[in-house]
Amino acid sequence: MRHVLLGGILFAAIFELSAMTQARAQDAAAGKKVFQSQCDICHSTQPNRNIIGPSLYSVVGRHSGMIPNFHYSAANRASGLVWDPGTLDRYLAAPRQVVPGTLMTYPGLKDPHQRSDLIAFLATLR
Q1: What is the CATH number of the domain that holds 72?
Q2: Which pLDDT belongs to residue 24?
Q3: Does some domain include residue 1?
Q4: Would you give the end-to-end CA distance of the chain in angstroms?
């Protein structure tokens, strides 16, 4: 009887954890809304269309400071960063801490769920 009870508790815990994980999955559609409300004033999602900031088309996997004819800060060009999801997450949370001397004036996106969704959206830009 005890094994049945423990098995039931374990199953319930795993089910609940699975539901929580699914509820927190990245949502590119929600990320597009974050982009539109936080980023599109300065960044384009179109290739070769820079605004105040560089185009974010194909940003995931790209090396920092690599778009031709865009005026990056020396700090950004020299950072050696590759915009993978982990680096983007840290940078979007606190750009000036990750790249001291960046010209980007954005203070950061503090909500980790919104950052995750935004990164999922950026990954669709191919």
Answers
A1: 1.10.760.10
A2: 55
A3: no
A4: 55
pLDDT tens-digit series, residues 8-62: 443 444 444 443 334 458 999 999 999 999 999 999 999 999 999 999 999 999 9
Structure tokens given for 120: 């999922």
CA distances from 48 to 43, 52, 80, 106 (A): 11, 13, 22, 22
- Total count of domains within the chain: 1
Identify the burial level of 42 via C-beta atoms within 10 angstroms of its C-beta, where 0-12 means exposed, 13-18 middle and 19 or more buried.
middle
9: amino acid identity, one letter:
I
**φ, ψ dihedrals at 64, nearest 5°:** -65, 140
| Any domain includes 17 | no
pTM of the predicted model as reported, rounded to 2 decimal places: 0.80
Q: Locate all alpha helices (DSSP H) within 24-111, ordered by sequence.
A: 28-38, 74-78, 85-93, 95-98
Residue 5 lies in a domain: no
